[in-house]
Amino acid sequence: MHIDGLLLDMNGLFRRWHDTGARTSERLARLPQGTISHYAYDHPAYRLARVGVLTDRQWADDVTDRLTRDFGPHVRDALGPWRADRGEPEPQMISLLAEIRRHLPVGVLSNCTTALRTDLQHHAITFDHVFPSAELGIDKPSPHAYRSAADHMGIPTHALAYFDDEPTFVQAARSTGMHARLFTGAEEFTARLHELGLLPATHSPERKTDATQKGSHAS
Predict the structure, then answer these.
(1) Which domain covers residue 65, as residue numbers?
(2) pLDDT at residue 30, as a whole number
(3) Which SS3 state, helix, strand or coil, does residue 108 take?
(4) Could you give phi then psi for residue 89, rounded to 5 degrees?
(5) Whole-prediction pTM value?
(6) Both 97 and 159 in a single domain?
């Protein structure tokens, strides 16, 4: 097995969501808990934003307009915390990413809106290649999403290792020939990298006990 590059998921690996911003906005607007997530991520507009038909701003404005229409104009001024919440970074994985990038190129493939690049800057997370589904025009688990990312990296799918915490997405990556593994945590991830010969044998992560959370956001 020869691996020339690594392709990784974003949410659940390098960022976790507690949706604290949405909960704060719901309290300010006197909305039932879960209302913002339902309006934001369960509506067809979110899929349009994930494949680039809508920008992140257009999608957020659509969410705001629908909430305001259904619950009243006071909601509009309460949504600031929801939009300001960009999730929480995983320092252990970010540190590990920097180590991996010393040895081979690493890309991120995420089902998300056009906000991904700004979010990476916000959290000081650096990849060699960044593939938001909104820029590719197609999202996981379509095999075309993985092949498009591989083409942009200039690496054949059979020479790419892929990690994701969503089993369906792992299966889809395997269908393209990628060496795809399920992500279950930083320690297991590090062990798999050692098996693939992608990390020095001396590297081992610090133990971490709290579970990674994805929240309502796609990966």
Answers:
(1) 20-84
(2) 98
(3) strand
(4) -75, 155
(5) 0.90
(6) yes
Phi, psi (degrees; rounded to nearest 5) at 7 = -120, 130
What is the reported pLDDT for 32? 97
Question: What is the rounded distance in angstroms from the CA atom of residue 50 to the CA atom of residue 59?
Answer: 9
Same domain flag for 124 and 41 = no
Contact 33, 26 (CB under 8 A): yes
Same domain, 104 and 191: yes
Residues in the chain: 219
179 with 92, same domain?
yes
Give the total number of structural domains in the chain: 2
Instruction: Summarize pLDDT for 129-169 with one digit per residue, the tens.
Output: 999 999 999 999 999 999 999 999 999 999 999 999 999 99
Calpha distance 95→101 (Å, rounded): 10
141 cis-preceded (ω within 30 degrees of 0) = yes
Nearest CA among 157, 150, 86 for reference residue 123: 86
Same domain, 107 and 12: yes
- pLDDT at residue 213 tops 70: no
Residues 172-182 as b or e (16 or more Cβ within 10 Å = b): bbbebbbbbbe
Nearest residue to 186 (alpha-carbon basis) of 162, 160, 157, 212: 212
Q: Is 143 exposed, middle or buried (0-12, 13-18, 19+ CB in 10 A)?
A: middle
Q: What is the 3-state secondary structure (H, E, C) of 156-210?
A: CHHHEEEEECCHHHHHHHHHCCCEEEECCCHHHHHHHHHHCCCCCCCCCCCCCCC
